Write a sequence for this structure.
């Protein structure tokens, strides 16, 4: 079973700046008001683990995919499902499309999607726009200096 929602925005931000925000865990709570904190055991790389805390108990995360300037994904194992947060960058003629998603896979995916996924998905538009806006501003600041 699978439950998936995503949100995308097209921006003039540089893909490298978007990816930098995704892999700099120090920016995550700035970009996502629902996130209290995040910690990673060592550098962000495939297989790296850590914890994130939102409104409930802290959850253990594992980075499962990292492609510089293109893709970032991490997952949380739950009883009966795996929750993942796929992030993607696609280059378009008018800029880049930045997509953040929330996916539950497993026998209880639809239950978790209904219980928790809908709330997470409602926050995606603001988070994606914030990441894109801050990445664009960081790129402009680098050009101006």
């Amino acid at each position: 079973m699978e439950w998936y929602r995503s949100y995308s925005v097209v921006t003039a931000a540089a893909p490298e700046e978007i990816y930098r925000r995704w892999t700099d865990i120090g920016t995550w709570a700035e970009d996502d008001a629902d996130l209290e904190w995040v910690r990673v055991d060592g550098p962000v790389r495939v297989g790296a683990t850590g914890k994130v805390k939102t409104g409930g108990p802290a959850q253990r995360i594992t980075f499962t995919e990292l492609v510089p300037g293109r893709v970032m994904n991490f997952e949380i194992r739950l009883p009966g499902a795996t929750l993942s947060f796929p992030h993607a960058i696609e280059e378009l003629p008018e800029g880049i499309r930045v997509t953040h998603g929330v996916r539950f896979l497993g026998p209880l995916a639809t239950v978790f999607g209904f219980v928790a996924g809908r709330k997470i998905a409602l926050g995606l538009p603001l988070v994606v726009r914030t990441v894109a806006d801050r990445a664009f501003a960081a790129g402009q600041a680098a050009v101006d200096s």
Summary: The first strand starts at residue 2 and ends at 11. The chain has one domain: 2-31+66-144. The mean pLDDT is 95. Residues 37 and 53 are 5 Å apart (CA to CA).
